[in-house]
Design brief:
The protein is an alpha+beta fold. The protein has 3 domains: 84 residues; 84 residues, Signal transduction histidine kinase, dimerisation/phosphotransfer (DHp) domain (Helix Hairpins, Orthogonal Bundle), CATH 1.10.287.130; 151 residues, Heat Shock Protein 90, CATH 3.30.565. The chain is 60% helix and 13% strand. It contains 10 helices and 7 strands. The strands form 2 sheets. A 5-stranded mixed beta sheet has the order 2-4-5-7-6. Strands 1-3 form a two-stranded antiparallel ribbon. Helix 4 runs antiparallel to helix 5, helix 5 packs parallel to helix 10 and helix 8 packs antiparallel against helix 10. The radius of gyration is 35 Å and the shape is elongated. 18% of the residues are buried.
């Protein structure tokens, strides 16, 4: 009956009444020799103590506990919660209640920390977005002012300024498009449409489309030996194409002249495939690697803006891969190169 160390109010009241009644009965045993009268005395004491203890527990302890449960639930109790508080909660011991409250406190602490982290992230994002937008807008404004001040009369200068203004407009459009892509991925506005396809064929397609950029720096591309055999994956082909384009673009931007880019494909356990794109470029300092997938994060602001890009490429890659339920990672070493890898299902 009392095997559980966390006794309910009824069990605790019964145990207390039994102990106290027994002690009282034993204390007056020497005064009462009539066993029937002693038994009646014991029963009366037992009932009185039981009712007294039970009412005290119910009124002063478990009603307070129920109130705590109502307060931590914040909202009006549902039928299920009312049934819990009426039938299940009274059978819980104080230790069980303590564990529940500690779990609730831990959950709320984690929620507060998450909200604080998200608020800080939001502030940094808005600050970075504002900075990224202002840079091309101010450049466009400057070129227009130069044209208005008379540069338009000089055909060479006007053509130069118009071309530079157009380049900044394209940069601004690209930035807004990337922000729109990330936003749509976050709110699941862009569904993941999976299909079976050969990953090496998609890598080759990306290479062909970026071949002009590779030729400018005489960068050689090849698939690693042992990875030539066609490997079928199950993913959104268009979005994985975008991931590969962003990774290849970074490999070209930060790759060395006469360098190389290598694509590798490996089988993993649980029907997973690992795709890695490796370059022998300038590399990335280890301290920067944990933040590479943050929006607008740049390892070198001046060099990154000079090379080009919105600073959102890897952030988009991360969102796309995570939307597939997979993982993406980066390994890098200064003056050795960088490897970006991600997993896909077969």
């Amino acid at each position: 009956m009392f095997k559980n160390k966390n006794l309910s109010p009824k069990q605790l009241a019964l145990l207390t009444a039994l102990i106290m009644s027994s002690l009282i009965a034993l204390s007056v045993f020497v005064l009462i020799t009539n066993w029937k009268l002693l038994l009646a005395y014991f029963i009366v004491c037992f009932v009185v103590v039981y009712l007294l203890v039970f009412q005290i527990l119910e009124l002063f302890i478990y009603r307070k506990i129920k109130l705590i449960y109502k307060l931590i639930s914040y909202t009006k109790a549902s039928k299920r919660e009312e049934a819990y508080q009426k039938y299940i909660l009274p059978n819980k011991g104080i230790d069980d209640v303590r564990v529940d409250v500690e779990k609730w406190a831990t959950q709320k602490t984690n929620e507060i920390q998450t909200l604080q982290s998200n608020e800080q992230f939001r502030k940094e994002f808005l600050q970075n977005l504002s900075h990224e937008i202002k840079t091309p807008i101010f450049a466009i404004q400057g070129y227009l002012e130069l044209l208005a001040d008379g540069a338009v009369e000089d055909p060479k200068l006007s053509a130069k300024f118009i071309k530079q203004a157009e380049a900044n407009v394209q940069r601004l459009v690209g930035l807004l498009n990337d922000v729109d892509v990330i936003t749509n991925l976050e709110i699941n506005k862009e569904p993941i449409l999976k299909q079976h396809f050969i990953i090496q064929d998609l890598i080759a397609e990306v290479f062909q489309n970026l071949n002009v950029k590779l030729l400018k720096k005489n960068i050689q591309f090849h698939i690693k030996k042992g990875s030539e055999e066609p490997v079928e994956v199950f993913a959104d082909k268009n979005k994985i194409y975008q991931v590969l384009v962003n990774i290849f673009s970074n490999a070209v931007k930060y790759g060395k002249i006469d360098g190389e880019i290598i694509a590798s494909v490996y089988y993993l356990e649980d029907n997973k495939v690992l795709i890695e794109i490796t370059d022998n470029g300038i590399g990335i300092e280890e301290s920067h690697i944990p933040r590479l997938f943050e929006r607008f994060y740049r390892t070198d602001d001046a060099r990154s803006r000079e090379i080009g890009g919105t600073g959102l490429g890897l952030a988009i890659c991360k969102h796309i891969i995570e939307a597939h339920g997979e993982n993406i990672h980066v390994r890098s070493q200064i003056n050795v190169g960088t490897t970006v890898g991600f997993t896909l299902a077969q």
